[in-house]
Amino acid sequence: MSNTNSIVTNLSGGHEDFLRLWTHHEPELRAFVRSCCPRAQEVDEVMQEVSVVAWRKFTSLDDSKPFGPWACMIARYELLMMRRRHARDRLVLAEDVVKLLAEEGAEEISLRHRQLEALDICIQDLPHERRELALAAYSRDTSIRDLAKRMGRTEWALYQLLARIRKKLFDCMNRSLEQMS
Q1: What is the pLDDT of residue 11?
Q2: Are the C-beta atoms of residues 79 and 33 closer than 8 Å to each other?
């Protein structure tokens, strides 16, 4: 996070600075918006509006303020605007609930970032064969059935192996997060 904050301190208002910061924080922002929106289409709409507003206001970003929380406040505002536009829908959360979720989501961004860092470290600590298996099993283009056939295993055996890998990653992440605290 400190390396992204250094970009903010040297703001030139350029495209590259914004794109670097947006690309770095977009997954966290999307997770935050997703926690407040019941439909994927709404998440995409809100994220598009957040990116446009953040781009327009980027030159006014105070260099002492980190980009993530700043963009999160824009997302919170856009979520409230979306809620008002869709107020008649039955699946829309009450405005006070959206505000509460937005506040909690903003607080959790740094926790999610630490969790992702811990996961990256733990994945790298896996033996090569296990790491490649885990990455392949959770890629979009791979089904467990196809992966099991390629490995000469049953689907059940592969699920059991993946469960052991997930348990190992979970334990490793908990140890890493404790050390980070």
Answers
A1: 44
A2: yes
The model's pTM is: 0.48
Long-range CB contacts (within 8 A, 24+) of 10-13: 10/63, 11/59, 11/61, 11/63, 13/58, 13/59
Tell me if residue 86 falls in helix, strand or coil.
Answer: coil
Distances (CA, A) of 157 to 58, 132, 144, 147, 169: 51, 17, 11, 11, 19
Q: How far is CA 178 from the centre of its chain?
A: 21
Q: Which residues of the chain have pLDDT under 70?
A: 1-14, 86-94, 106
Q: What are phi and psi of 28, to 5 degrees?
A: -65, -40
User: Angle, to 10 degrees, between the axis of helix 144-151 and the axis of helix 155-180?
Assistant: 110
Contacts of 133 (CB under 8 A, 6+ apart): 147, 151, 161, 162, 165
DSSP letter, residue 88: T
Residue-wise pLDDT for 123-163, tens only, equals 999 999 999 999 888 887 888 899 999 999 999 999 999 99
Radius of gyration of the chain (CA): 20
pLDDT at 34: 85
Q: Which residue has the tokens 């699920």?
A: 159
